Amino acid sequence: MEERYRLSAGVTALICMVSLIISVITMVVCLSMRADMPKTLESVTVSESTTTGNPVSPIYYVGLHDEKIVVSTPEGDIVRELDAKAEFLPESEREMLRLGIAVYSSEQLYSVIENYME
Description:
This protein has helices spanning about 1-45, 90-100, 105-115, and strands at about 60-65, 70, 80-85, 100-105. The chain is of the alpha+beta class. The chain is rod-shaped and about 85 Å long. Residues about 40-50 have low confidence and may be disordered.
């Protein structure tokens, strides 16, 4: 009986050690990949569009013009004026709009417009 107990305890300890070693190896690999990630991201942005087909440069900006929220092209042409009033927004939101919110896709534009129309 005692021998079975020792064998069982030994197998359990071995399994725990193997699990611990695998966990440590996985953690080291993940941390090394994370350290290399910024270098990889810098080398990816070399063309005018990403691998998903979305443009790297903005297609629209959402900003303020005469204290009204507007959608404009990168060249500055206003394509839409929103009914939302900027004066009711918090100062941090107005500051973001003064700087201009870059929009990279139609879906993102709809999302930004929806946020300001609520």
